[in-house]
From TrEMBL, chain B:
Name of the protein in its database record: Spermidine Putrescine ABC transporter permease component potC
Record-annotated ABC transmembrane type-1 domain positions: 60-249
Gene3D superfamilies listed in its UniProt record: MetI-like
Residue stretches spanning the membrane: 6-29, 64-84, 96-118, 130-152, 172-194, 201-222, 228-249
Principal subcellular localisation of the protein: membrane
Amino acid sequence: MLLAPPFLYALALLALPILAVVLFSFWTQDFMTIDTGFTLANYREFFDKPIYTVLLGRSLMVSGIVTLVTVILAYPVAYFLSFHVAPARKSLWLFLITIPFWTSYLIRVFLWKVILGYNGVINSGLVGAGIIDEPLSFILYNVNAVIITLAHAFAPFAILPIFVALEKIDRSLIEASRDLGETRISTFFRVTLPLSMPGLVAAVLIVFIPTIGDYVTPELMGGAGGKLIANMIQTQFLQLNNAPMGAAIAIVAMTCVTAIALVFVGLNRRWLRGRG
Amino acid sequence: MKGAPLRVYAILYLLFLYAPIALLPLFAFNDATIIAFPLKGFTTHWFTDLAANTALRQAVGNSLFIAAMTAVFATLLGLCAARAGAMARFPGKGGIIGFVMLPLVLPEIIVAVSLLIVMRQVLGLNLSNWTVIAAHVLICAPFSIAILNGAFQNLDPSIEEAAMDLGESRFSAFRLVTLPLVWPGIVSSLLIAFTISLDEFIIAFFLTGANPTMPVYIWGLLRFPAQLPVVMALGTILVALSVVLLVIAELFRRRGLARAGIKDTGGFL
């Protein structure tokens, strides 16, 4: 009974709207009105014009690299929190990690521009220290800048699920492995890492899927060559006033992300089973 | 000490997380229009400019209204879901809760475009603060549910039953017995939903009406270099405000867990 309000709310404002997007993607924009004849024209245009597939490919690559970087950098922090921090201080650490994530996203992204820019913190620091003569230009207005900024923005998302999975590991299993003669490193790879896999998978999904939908970071940091598929969706809806095309792009992007996520989860499951 | 290298790494990682935010106050009080080093001198006039900007004040007002409404509705939905999740058992419960939590992992742009299509093209509504509120409730509800789940987790359903056996109605049993126990969780959920909504840009940019929200207004300012120090000043105030809200939310969340009698396992998520 009580689940009804949130369920109906999500049904009305999530499931039905997504169905509407699917429907729209099969219609076409006819100047000011929508032509509701069923057609695959939008999808044909998507795969015919290289711009769309290039943007999608770049988006998937950026999301993939961001996910990899975020998760690899986050794992040791989560491990440290779970195994080396006194229980009483764990929530303070977690709180410190989550604070930056709650503070003005737009301004945080903009500040990366200040850090990475031509006269930015890094360049003026390096030039001032005499390490380089000319400011580095490969760190702003390109894909690298987008990756750095997104990896920063999604860091807490990666740490928390891994931390939770590590917390659940029965510590006596690790002791048992050590007693049976495994080294600390082989214990990590044969006991701790496989047992923390659910958290790792959750971290990968919770970073990979949302990053595809961000248009702020590529818009501010990406320059001309760093735009992503979400920028195209935004342009179709808000500037070109072509909702059906935007809908089709959104559907293709979402389908690709979901497919990749499912393949990843499937492969992971098979790997874990193969070991067990 | 065996965790020493890891500790150094974790501290460096924290510095990396805080690096951009640490720059905010530096430039907010810097007496130069260009946001770059070296710093020029101390001034507070970006803050006075900020106070004089009526368009911005209006945007802040809109955002505060949206955030307050979102906090209330998301928390109400969260209460329903968390209570049902903790106390009732029925087939399909996991699936339904999973569906309600879905916005947590959905790309925000998908939520934004799907609601834009429904509001504008299907229902023919004009975009307003309420369209933003509708969307923000959707994305904040999972956070509220997660927080309130913590508060409800160890609540024994039999204490509410006992109150009803003793003659209280179902509602007054909830009000007199359950509510006081989960109250800290409610405050924490209100504050978190408020903070998320206040800061949300991706969806608000699609659904905002003639009156922009604060992040949408900031987005507009970012294109004008002369306005950037004012944005830094605003950012400094926002960061200070959200830190205060989050500290209060965290204190309430912990108190809630203590009341429910469970060990703190950390974080909001």
